[in-house]
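Re: Re: ligand-bound prediction request (bumping)

Still looking for help on this. To restate: I need the protein modeled with 9MJ bound, output as structure tokens. Inputs repeated here so nobody has to scroll up.
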Amino acid sequence: MNQSVSQRMQELEELLNRYNKEYYENDEPSVPDAEYDRLFHELKALETEHPDLRNASSPTMKVGGKPLGQFKTVQHEVPMLSLDNAFSVEEFEAFSKRVEQRLDTNQTVTFCCEPKLDGAAVSLLYENGLLVRGATRGDGQSGEDITENVKTIRNVPLKLSGDVPERLEVRGEVVMPLGAFERFNEQARLRDEKVFANPRNAAAGSLRQLDSKITAKRPLHFYAYSLGVISETTQLPDSHYMRLQQLKDWGLPVNIEIKTVESVQGCDDYYESILARRDSLNYDIDGVVFKVDSVRLQQDLGFVARAPRWAIARKFPAQEQLTTITGVDFQVGRTGAITPVARLEPVNVGGVTVSNATLHNADEIERLGVRIGDCVSIRRAGDVIPQVVSVVKDKRPEKTEAIEFPLHCPICQSDIERVEGEAVARCTGGLYCAAQRKEAIKHFASRKAMDIDGLGDKIVEQLVERDWIKSPADLYRLSKAELATLPRMGSKSAENLRNAIKATQETTLARFIYSLGIREVGEATANALANHFKNLDALVAANSEQLQEVPDVGAVVAHHIVSFFQESHNQQVVAELREFISWPEGEDASSVQSDRLTGNTYVITGTLSTMTRDEAKSALEALGAKVASSVSKKTTALVAGENAGSKLTKAQSLGLSILDEEALHELLKD
Ligand code: 9MJ
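Reply:
Sorry for the wait, this slipped through. Here it is.
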């Protein structure tokens, strides 16, 4: 029996060592964390049961990976520890009991609660307030000198302010925010460059660039969460939480979700509240960390092989899981873009059952080397659709099937065309294609377009499937009696819907342009076009050069607009719509009323009490301002409501002006 146990232990060690190397040294894991954790757990359990079989160099005794030798090596004066994990409330309670027993106390222990950021751990050394060295964690004893790279991270201060200790080592996590990560990968896919499996690998890979100019282009963000070396003469508070606040006062970024609680119940509440908001945070977290808040008590507790006894990470459900691809569907979008979607054996990812995941496009299928029947890693994070991130080739079954990209549209059989140099393949059917028609009409009726109250996606699908609607103009030809024959549509609802459709016959030119669904013409561009051309005929007649005179319209958008109006079936749709729809022509053709704020860019965050964020956005845009979704150096000011989060921290670290709700009203009033 011991023969097979020891064999299994050796097997697990080998697998874990290989996965560690992929994860820490190559930034390219072949299996999700959940699979790694499962094997790690299995090995740990076997080691506890059979301590005599434990290998001294077991992966359970180590932190991270070896330095790669490309950078200078840095010896950590104080080891950079990892954290033990608790996967259930019971495991956390056991930790808390151990703490109380070791401290020999029945007083409640105060814990500092922190989100567990899923990025790359780094150490920053400040001497006389100046950043003199940045290092990776490496194996915890020694890491790599990445000073030039950390200096390029925008929210890492090169100089601290105030009365700073002579030597101060700050530790924390470097992350790539989710939105930035998605954009980065999208660009990389288009250019056929390296795509990262997740933001953590992207952050770690970016920090390990030998050319810091490359790191500088990566959108990285640092959060401080602990201290290493501090000059002996320095007096600091005993509370870890208060020490973090002190770091903040010296100019270091500290996550705003960090707080202290008094009991196990407090920790549980914190866990639940962060878990509930996980998808709305702009960075990946894989759990929360609970730390005994008193540094004196932390010292009493000490640490074991790889982790402190005074802290534990309570893990969240993993955002990546393994499953099998059972088939591939090809979906047709509003503009005809064909998206391959993998059908999966249902799998729970981060608390949600996932049975489909996007494969993006044909190039991505090739890049992944994926086949039907393959075991794949699925990632679901934030509010983006689940994605296939990698294929576990080791687990490929004997029988797999190639994925054939169709040559004809699966809905209307029109040819599928792929323009040279473009990653996307498109159905050429236009509004002849029922799939495109459905999406085009859903877009036409949507809130920011014609805003047809009560015309939900299901109704649009039924109308198209019955062939009652061949183009958006047909909506205005529907009678109450026809609508009343739809399933679950009473005579009153039919009348309401008919009236809601009628009510949109008077609109604005900007809404009308947006509702046409021209590629890359979003709400802001539609506004700018309406404002510039003042009437539809002028827009339809404009050539590419004239279109590019409009702010924010470049060659690509101009090309899409020209091609749209050149298509004869689009000309027909527009002509038909004009029979029903009108807007005030001339000066105030768009919803932009003034150009008082032209050239200014605002970002809105948090909850406003007197208006919705959409209303605030429209009000600012009506004065010519742009409203962006993320804070950057180009942002004029941040409008921050209640409970503003990371955008506020970022704006503060960039020194931007912050407007509260009152200041926003002042700005709009002038
Ligand atoms: C992360 N990853 O967010 C620690 N961590 O403390 C936080 N990691 C840590 N703390 C001691 N918030 C070792 C690691």
